[in-house]
Please model this.
Amino acid sequence: MTSFHENMMRRALSLARKGIGKTSPNPAVGCVIVREGVVVGEGWHRKAGTPHAEAHALREAGSLARGADVYVTLEPCSHFGRTPPCADALVAAGVARVFVGMVDPNPKVCGKGIARLEAVGIQVITGMLGKECRLINDPFVKHVSTGLPFLTLKSALTLDGKTATALGDSRWITNEKSRRYVHQLRAAVDAVMVGVGTLLADNPELTVRHVKGKNPLRIIVDSSLRMPNQSRVLGDDLAHGTIVATTSDDQERIGFLETRGVQVIRCASDGGRVDLRDLMERLGARGIQSILLEGGSELAGAALRQKLVDKFILFYAPIFLGGADGIGLFGGKSVERMERAFRLETVRVRRFGGDVMIEAYPEEACSRD
Model:
């Protein structure tokens, strides 16, 4: 793998990132076409149901695609969906080689696109920057492989590990730059999830406001249906995008919520609370691929212990609460021995003014790469 080939794949990755948050349930894909060392076409998948990255790049390259090299972050599709197969388009264009970042885990494609290209003599090189190509499509890979959503736990903490004071005050731990980035994260996921405790304490809207982007669905885990009628997520402009997960069979209360336009999901009970694994299965069956878990501590603790968290994004502000009280990141019982601690592999550390963001994955997930 020469530096030129790697640079072209990195260019394709950069294009793919433009589609993050816009292509679900499809993956974000970038494509670059090179003829005699010169880029002649490039494109990215912009929205589900519209032309794929390869189609945009081939249209830009035109006749110059014949005999060219193609760099694409994900295996070209080989089946008819809402758009024609990209593998067939590459064959018709007469390209010489195709560099593929990662094989598509979707059973409808997995290896078939590559086989289609190789059947007509097109050389296919796979695995170039494979880990980077997978990371940009973690939710797609998780969902198509397991049927479950990809769950990212996001939290803001003081340096002594608190997410709120003993009175529940959490506004604001982090600075405006950090909060703006959180809205970018919201715009990139299918749904944002909080527990009813967060709803009672903060009455959040859970929308995208500080950046341009779509509002995610809002998932409220409310086992006993305690959420007030005046909750912002039940407002006329938000209720139809709100899902409430519960174990309650209070038909009057459920009827009220459904009249507002809320979707109510009755889940299995785990000690009187919503069974999170059951909820994840139900949300995945609805096509929800990515969820940003924003609170609270009991919900976060349950998700951690059930090994449902796929990624952690933690913002640390340079402040202390300075005591033993206050609310920590995880509620519930902690492990008793250090050898059983939940271990992470840090992928990225980034600063937002005085705040520090740590982006990490569970260590066992990284060991499978």
Remarks:
- The mean pLDDT is 92.
- The two ends are 20 Å apart (CA to CA).
- The first strand starts at residue 30 and ends at 35.
- The CA atoms of residues 151 and 291 lie 5 Å apart.
